[in-house]
Amino acid sequence: MSTSAPPADGNNKLTWMLSSLDIEGVRYSVLISGDGLRMAHSDSITRDEADAFAAAVSGVQSLGKALAAMCGDADNRLRQNLIEYDQALVLVTAAGQNAMLGVCATPTADAGLIVHRMNDLASRLGNELTSETRRP
Question: Full-prediction pTM beyond 0.70?
Answer without folding.
Answer: yes
